[in-house]
Fold:
Amino acid sequence: MQVLLGALLLHAYGSYAAVLRTEFGWSKTLFSAAYSMSQVESGLLGPVQGRLIDRLGPRVITQVGVIMFAGGFMLFSQINSPITFFLAFFLIAVGSSLAGFMAFTVSVVNCFERRRALALGIMFTGIAVGGLIVPAVVWSLESFGWRTTAFASGVIVLVVGLPLTLILRHHPAQFGDQIDGRKPDDDSAAADESRRETVPARRDFTAREALRTTTFWYLSLGHAAALLVVSAVLVHMVLHVHENLGYSLGVAGAMTALMTAMMIVGLLSGGLVGDRGNKRAIIVACMAGHASGLLLLAYATSLWMVAIFAILHGLAWGARAPLLQAIRADYFGRTSYGTIMGFSAFVAFMGMMLGPLIAGVLADETGGYKAGFTVLAVLVSLGAVFFILVRPPRLPGEPADAEEERPKRLAVKPLASDR
Structure:
C-alpha cells in the first residue's frame, strides 16, 4: 500500500504538475494551492481518523480509503479546468489519507515495542520504493499521456489495494500472537515477567492528557517544520530541475529515484540505530540534513549539486520519519496512539500545507526557487530547536523523577499498556 501511495501520488505529483503546466499553462501557485488544500483536509481529518482507527481498527478505514483513492484517479483522468482539478485531487487526497500511513503506523506500533523504530522504518520503505518506480510513471506520462496514466493508476489502486486491506489487523492478538511476536513459553517472556516484579507498572497517556503536555506540542511543531521541506520538494523539485535548471523529465525522475533510494538507506539505518541510541539527537541531525540539502538545491548550478541534495534529503527524510513515530509511542504509549497521532497530524500538516505555498508563490514572484527554498531551509533549522527542547512527559500525579526512569522502563516492560 505504501508503494502505491509513493509511486502513484507522493513522488509522482511533481511530474504531473510539469505535464499539466505544459498543456494548460497553469501557475506554480495553483499546483501549490491544490497540494496545500489536500494537506488541510488531511490535517482536519487526522483527529477523527485517529479516533476511528482506535475504535474500529484500521481495516475498514483503509478499505473506504482505497475506493476513494482509486475513484479520485479515475476522475482526475477527465479534468479540463482548475475547478475539476481541485475536485479530483481533493478526492485523491481524502482516499490516500484514509488508506495511508496513519492506519499502518497504528498497526505496527501495536505489534512492536522492542524494535519499534526498525519495524516502522521497514514499513516506511514502501513509500521510498514507490519513488524508485517514478521513472516508470514518467515514461508512462510521456508515452501514453497523463490521462491514460491517471486512469490506469486508479485501476491499479483498486485491484491491488483492496485485497491487501483484508490482511490488516489492529492488534497482534487478532493473529493469536503477542506484542513483538513473543509466546507465553518464550524465555524472553519469562524474563519480562520477572522484571515486572521490580519495575512499577505504568499506564499509557490518554489523548486528553497528551494534549496537555509540552512534549506533544514540541513534537508536533518540530514535525511541522520538517514537513515544510518534504512537501515543497514533493511539489517543486521536478519543476525546478526541469524548468529552471533545464533538464528533461527523465533526468528529474532519476533524481527522484536517487532521493528515494537514499531514503530507504535512511529508513533502515535510522530504525536500527534509533532502537539503540538517542532518537532525539538523530532527529536533530536529520533536520540539519533537510536544511543543508535544500540550500544546495536552491543554489544548484549543475546536476551533481542536485544529486548531493537528493542524497542528503533522502537520508534525512528516511531516518527521521520512523524515529518520530517511535518516540511518540515511547512517550505516550499504545492505548490511544491513533487518536494522539491524529491530533498531532492536525498540527504537523500545517507544514505540508505551507511548504509548497511558500515555494510556489515566491517562485512565481521571483522567477525561481532560490528565495522560497532559502526561507524554508531557515524555518526547518529553527524547527530543530523543538526537538532539542522536548523531554519525556509526566503523567498527572507522577513524581518528577519518573521522567528520567521512563526510557529504562520502556526498554524492559513491553506489555505495560496490556496490564
